[in-house]
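Postdoc handover notes: sequence design on the structure in folder B. Input tokens:
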């Protein structure tokens, strides 16, 4: 199994959306419900959103590609205006590929990319009840900075930060 990570292309849009949908339903629907998950995906994970992220030069949107299976994961981050911080808004892997190290590779990749672009820290939000994600980020050296309430999905979350 050869997995490479490369910048997303417009032709990857549907595969990225497929990964997002599968991952959100597996990880988040048990916490916020299927209807809220579907609404969130429809509003924030539409094809136009991904196409615009691919075209925006300062955004990072990279995909993990299996030689045989195609796109199996992706990561997206954006610079926070006026700072050396990047917001890691998206990192997802197909649920059937969890625990293969793909998420860790995507995370390491985006950290190196942020550093190359002059970023000094990464921040991200995690649902408080998403224990798998909490463990993933904490084991990667992210520290819990604060708790917040996400009005978009009506659930509590943790803000994690890592200095690079």
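Designed sequence:
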């Amino acid at each position: 199994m050869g997995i490479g990570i490369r910048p997303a292309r417009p032709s990857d849009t549907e595969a990225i959306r497929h990964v997002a949908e599968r991952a959100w339903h597996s990880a988040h629907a048990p916490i916020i419900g299927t209807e809220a998950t579907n609404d969130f995906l429809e509003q924030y994970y539409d094809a136009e959103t991904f196409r615009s992220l691919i075209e925006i030069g300062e955004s990072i949107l990279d995909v993990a590609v299996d030689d045989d299976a195609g796109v199996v994961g992706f990561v997206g981050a954006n610079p926070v205006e006026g700072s050396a911080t990047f917001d890691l808004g998206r990192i997802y892997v197909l649920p059937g590929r969890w625990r293969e190290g793909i998420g860790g590779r995507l995370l390491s990749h985006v950290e190196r990319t942020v550093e190359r672009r002059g970023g000094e820290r990464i921040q991200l939000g995690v649902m408080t009840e998403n224990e798998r994600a909490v463990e993933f980020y904490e084991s990667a050296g992210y520290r819990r900075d604060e708790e917040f309430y996400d009005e978009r999905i009506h659930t509590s979350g943790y803000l994690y930060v890592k200095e690079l």
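Context for whoever picks this up: The chain has one domain: 3-163. Don't rerun without checking with the PI first.
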